[in-house]
Amino acid sequence: MIISNLDKAKVLVQALPYIQKYHKKTVVVKYGGNAMINEKLKEAVISDLILLSLVGINVVLVHGAGAEITDMFNRLNIETKFINGLRYTDETSIDIVQMVFAGKTNKDLVNLIGLQGGKAIGLSGIDGGLIKAKKLIENGEDYGYVGEITDINIQPVVDVLEKGYIPVIATIAQRVDFDREISQIDSIDLFKQAKTYNINADTAAAEIAVKLKAEKLILLTDIKGLMTDVKDEDTLIPVVKVSEVDDLKKRGVITGGMFPKVDCCAAAVNGGVNRTHIIDGRIQHSILIEMLSDEGIGTMFVK
């Protein structure tokens, strides 16, 4: 389909008030799912982020690495085990998670942004003590080296934004629940205690957005948004008040993998983020559709 110059101009005019509205505001995007696997979708996401950055919007990218970690586990014949939707991470696995997450995946994204003319700096939760965590234990379940966030030091992110770069954040965390009497333990025990924690990227994105007093938090997912019937995309709920979340859970509208995503969105709004969104990352340029159009996309959570 050929788009006329007039139609292109109309699109830009429609976007203008949104560019003005979000100028110098902060938007946190959690990136995962199909949008990280499909090359065309990946290219669209990266170009969206660069465009937003170039028009003066502070963009922070928080990413997952589930597919690449699973692929590496398969190559090494390591079993992938999930408990309540979270990847169980043992002493050996956490080294691989850190290597893939903070190494390959993070630096690949930084490289892609640079290749498309943007500016990015890769960070992980251990850089500058950005994310600190203790061991996650829920209902007696042991997830291994999976952490629960105890503190966010947002200054490294602020410093990167002030220099005009897009921070690209891998959500592994610095441990706080280790024996600080290091003189009483040998070097092997110290090395074990120095291992990092794997952190759920949705949760980390929400807490980072709160600390930054972000205007928006956007979660890219593999579904259209929150729907009353998951089998019928026409039942999409475009707007949800956070006060309605508990009722939606009781009615069975929020189920399975949507539980943590909705909880993150609600927590971010309650923490001061103006708007949070669950949008379909399978649609090219879904970020721009949400940010710079009248229609928007997906499900928006408001106070």
Features:
single chain, 303 residues, alpha/beta, eleven-stranded mixed β-sheet, 13 strands
Q: How many strands, which pairing sense, and closed or not: the largest β-sheet? A: 11 strands, mixed
Distance between the termini: 40 Å
Mean pLDDT: 90
Oligomer: single chain
Overall number of strands: 13
Unreliable residue runs: none
Q: Radius of gyration in whole Å, from Cα?
A: 20 Å
Query: What share of residues is helical?
Result: 25-40%
Q: What characteristic shape results from the CA principal axes? A: globular
Number of helices: 10
Could you state the order of secondary-structure elements as H and E? HEHEHEEHEEEHEHEHEEHHEHE
Strand content: 15-25%
Which class of secondary structure composition applies to the elements? alpha/beta
Structure description:
With 303 residues, the protein is α/β, with parallel strands linked by helices. Strands 1, 2, 5, 6, 7, 8, 9, 10, 11, 12 and 13 form an eleven-stranded mixed sheet that branches. It has a two-stranded antiparallel ribbon with strand order 3-4. β6 and β7 form a beta hairpin. The protein is globular, with a radius of gyration of 20 Å. It has ten helices and 13 strands. The model has no long low-confidence stretch (mean pLDDT 90).
